[in-house]
Every structure is written in structure tokens, then in C-alpha cells.
Amino acid sequence: MRKIINDPEMVVDESVQGFLKAHSGLVEASDNPRVLVSKNAAQPGRVGIVTGGGSGHKPAFIGYIGENMLDAVAVGEVFSSPPAQAFFDAIKSADSGNGVACLYGNYAGDKMNMKMAEKMAADAGIKVKSVIANDDAASAPADQPNKRRGVAGEIFMWKVAGAASAKGYNLEEVVSAAQKAIDNTRSVGVGLSSCTLPQLGHPNFDIEEGKMEFGIGHHGEPGIEITDLESAKIIAERMCSTVIEDLPFNSGDDVAVIVSGLGATPLQELYILFNEISGILELSEINIHTSLVGNYFTSLEMQGATFTIMRLDSEMKELLSFPARSPGLIVTGG
């Protein structure tokens, strides 16, 4: 294991400490060391926006705390759900009396602990509504959306919800916008190598040299198939075919796109992949309105990338373009 760490058992806590020092203008600690809060959280008249999840995906999840973005995030151990108490403390930190939208991924631990937190919130008189992201098109058939994982599409969901809250939407309207965002989003990933959990000290799965795993999950969940490593052009074709046909996306659609590295893929290669994807979308007469290329939702040091695409209407365009500032994403408006 080659990692710049001290004690493997302290990786999450020491990472959080460093993150807070690096981004002290936007994010602050709470009474719970596993809950981070925006300095603009709980503003009067606004709906709170909360998420949470396991560590190892930075900048997700804490990297999207900030102005007109997430108000509070519960932090779990590496690839593990935060406990219910952390989710509840995040909800309390984000609440200004107008309710809290909890927007998180479709993972058993997160769902169980968030449901417990929602009950705790109800007992405390806090109104909470949730949206569960399920944008990973490779993780289950289209007719079983409740079995699909939430991956990088959550970023669009958080951005839309944060903007909706800033524009004065009420809780039901914020949740409706977030649900629309995720319903119109599809993602797929490809892995070229495994990653190592610090506490284990060895890879948590294996991909042979010269192979790739298409449809892999952010924690190394099995994909659709393992094949010989293909060119960026072929990978892009497979990715586009998977997500375009799934919604489906159609000629004339305006879309937002994320090409995210999984932690160890050079930015140069992500731009090569994006170049191929954008060419395919152009030939399909699908218009890229917004594009993000970089490390937006990672998996420790896994090599590979995810492709996320979201269909836009006028409301989604407006909310995506609304100004926001967080460590992981800055939107200046336009």
C-alpha cells in the first residue's frame, strides 16, 4: 500500500481536518466531528439541502458544501454509510424552519440510516423529504430503477436543489426539482484498476493488467462485463450507447454532461474521452449545454472514468446555471 497517510484508522478524521482548514471560507465544523456545514447554512426562508455518504469519493460528498449548494453533509468511513445520528445532526444543522431536502444515493446502509434520521427529525418537529439517486444505468435493468445505484448524477441533483432553495422554492418544489434532475440523468462507469482501502491495506477487488470492467460501481461493485482494454473511441461508443438508449435521449435534446475520473486517471485522458463522447452526441444531434470534465466523483485511486448525462428543460438549465460556490464546483452564472 502506497498512500500519504499516518494511521490508517484516522484517515477520514485527518482528511476532514485538512479539508476544513483548506476551505474555511465556505465550510465549518459542527458539534459532531462527522458532520460538516456550510457557513451559509440555515438561512431564513430557505430549504436546507443535506446529503451524506462514505468517504473515498472526494470531492463528493463534502466538496459540494457551499453557497447555493449543500448545507450539511454526514461523513462516513471509507465506502461506508454515516450513522443515523450523523444524518440527523446534518439535518438539524441545515434546518431554518422551512424543511430539509435529503438527497442521497441508493445504497442499503445510507437508506437505512437516513430513514432512522428522518424519524428522529420528525420527532424533533423538522419536516424532511428525500430523493434517492439511481442514475447508474449499468447497475440494474431499466425496469428495475429502484435497484440502481446513485453515482455522479447526484452532483446535478445537489446543484439543482441548491439553486432551487436559493431561488425561494418551498420544500415540495425543491424535492420535485431534485427528482426531475435525477429522473432525467443516466451514468455509466468503466474501471481499469482496483483501489485500496486504507484500513485493509490491499486492493478490495482485482482487474487484470490489459483488462477493463465496463459498468463498474464506485466501490468496485461488479460491472456488466470484463473485456480487453479498448480505445477511448470504443469506450465512448459503449458508454453513449448504454446511457442514450436507456432514458432514451433523443435528437434535439439539450443536455449537461460530466466526465469524471475515478481518482487515478490523468486529466489528459478524460479530455480524450470527452472529445469522443461529444462527437458521438453531435452526430446524434444531442446538444451539450453544460459540460464538466475532471475529478468530480472519485473512488480512491481507481483508474477509470464515469460518464453522466442529464436531459435539460428550461427549468433545469436555469437551475444549473444559477451561481454557486463550493470546493468541488463553482458556477459563475450565465
The end-to-end distance, rounded to whole angstroms, is: 45 Å
Question: How many strands?
Answer: 14
Spans of at least 5 consecutive residues with low confidence = none
Strand order of the largest sheet: 1-2-4-3-5-6
| Discrete helix count | 8
Q: What is the strand content? A: 15-25%
Shape: globular
Radius of gyration: 19 Å
Structural class: alpha/beta
Overall pLDDT metric: 97
- Main sheet characteristics: 6 strands, mixed
Taken in chain order, the helices and strands follow as: HEEEEHEHEHHEEEHEHEEHEE
Helix content: 25-40%
Protein name: Dihydroxyacetone kinase subunit DhaK
GO cellular component, one term: cytosol
GO molecular function: glycerone kinase activity
Organism: Candidatus Thalassospirochaeta sargassi
Summarize the structure.
The protein has 334 residues and is α/β, with parallel strands linked by helices.
